[in-house]
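Assemble and predict.
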Amino acid sequence: MSRDPASSCLAATRPRLLPDEADPGAAAALRGHLARHGARPSCAGGRHHRQRLIGEVEEAGLTGRGGAGFPTAKKLRVLAAGRRAPQVIANGVEGEPASDKDKVLLSRAPHLVIDGAVSAAELTGATEAVIVAHPAACQAVQDAARERRAAGCDQVPVRVLAAADGFTAGEASAVLRWTERGAPVPTGRAPRLGRFGHQPALVQNVETLAHLALIMRHGASWFRSAGTPAEPGTMLVTLLGAVRWPGVYEVEPGVPVSGLLDLAGGTAQPSGALLIGGYFGTWVAAADVLDLPFSAAGLSPLGARPGAGIVGVLPAGACGLAETARLTRYLAGSSAGQCGPCVFGLDAIARELELAAAGGGGDLTRVRRWLRDVTGRGACHHPDGTALMVGSALRAFRDEIGLHSRGRCSGTSGAGVFPVPGPPS
Amino acid sequence: MTRRARLTVDPIACDGRGLCAELLPELIRLDDWGFPVITGAEVPAGLHGEVAAAVRLCPRLALHLEPPPPGRAG
């Protein structure tokens, strides 16, 4: 049972980024955005002034919301001090099929994202802000950018670009490559460093930039008044699978995982396992995780991380091993195809998992060795993330694997649970 | 601890010809698909000649000897 994302923007506290539930479309237009948040304060000015504002971001403790959690102020400082003017790229590619938060944010609050991108451009002296938006949200962002141009809002040029398809297209170096050359493939080089003949770039997730826009308005202590001291602010999460109302919610880090699921109306069926952090995330038994705080610190005893804020609930009637094989096959097929260990290794791992899931054997000892072998061997983290997820599945579904080795399966439904796009036609 | 030069593979350039593992079995093995795994990234002093040859002879120019990272004093 799925609700329209717009109507599922509930929050534990008053939402900061997402519009109020009562009028979800209100902030999509410039007038509604300004009525809610006020005008964007300029971040342009002398070096000292900009350094002070970056200090405010540092004090706020803002971290990247694309999954890696890198401190935003560090990137801003490096680029602001660089010899060459960078470009700012707002990453709204959201290649992860389990995630919806960036699409919802871009559709419902495009001006907040653009505010953040323009602020980041001013802070770093950038020549341009490029918003790379998932095709489903691109029109809303284009409309917003047009409205701002007509109103003369921004001194920095703002360009809107539709994102490429595919899981790896959202990786930071792939987003940069897409804006520069129209090829959405990871390069293995950190965008902020630039290279000979290339402009350095600040690539930041769109949610991170929306938070930045609010920090520039309200300051660090306001930002820190939500969340935990170690993980301040609010965060967007996508809840999917066996919950009553799948969708995007704005929450404070530290809320118990069970409270998170309550926002989505609770689990629709008894749940067996949860996939925390998306397809590069960690499978955990529901009983182990429900009482833990949803934060990096709270989930660390299980080796899990919030990542890009994705929690998938596997219903008790679904086979975790079969679901893992299905996701691994998707990830193997999503390789950018550049690095041998990723191309051949993930395919081999997926094949063994498929055999094990079908009850026809599958050598999981080999899979464990291959997980170690592919880790760290790609230009991007695609093999590493896949290996983390598969490794956690081998632990979480140990009993299920035992059943399968005896030709049985606890699943009562053969249908896949989490979204897996088909191959591009 | 003295910092040594490190052996790295550019995974995009590499297409698994496997010459490096033949020339430098002390530091490189091949995985099940024939792609090099660096087993000893820090190059021991006695192997500099062999390493330089392997770097030069890689047909894809994918093997690199990275200079030691700038270490903190002390």
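Chain B touches chain A through twelve residues (CB under 8 Å).
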